[in-house]
Amino acid sequence: MGQRTVTRMDLSEAVFREVGLSRNESAQLVESVLQHMSDSLVRGEQVKISSFGTFSVRQKAARVGRNPKTGEEVPIHPRRVLTFRPSHLMKERVAAGNKANA
For residue 61, which of 79, 43, 84, 73 has the smallest C-alpha distance? Predict the structure, then answer.
């Protein structure tokens, strides 16, 4: 299965084709949306996109980890991690795509 990455340029090109804004305006719109999403996540807010999924920030507690190579215990500091939970519709679309490619 060939892997393709969708980039900001791909998104702005899609906005250009679908909405009819200029290429520059499309790029600015995509940047603005991504910046707004990022800012919200930094503030600890959830970003929920209907029929797509929810991005949220989770606080992980400190714990003791282990270096798999040496077996040495290593402290893992508390941290914030970004999580994504796809919507049921997105899960169904991906599952249907998997069946079509099998």
Answer: 79
pTM: 0.77
Q: Are 48 and 54 in contact (CB under 8 A)?
A: yes
Using DSSP bridges, classify how beta strands 73-76 and 79-86 pair: parallel, antiparallel or unpaired: unpaired
Structure tokens at 48: 């929920």
For residue 86, the number of C-alpha atoms closer than 13 Å in the C-beta half-sphere is 8
Q: What tokens were used for 95?
A: 């599952």
| pLDDT score, position 5 | 94
Beta-sheet pairing, 73-76 with 47-49: unpaired
pLDDT in tens, 20-38: 899 999 999 999 999 999 9
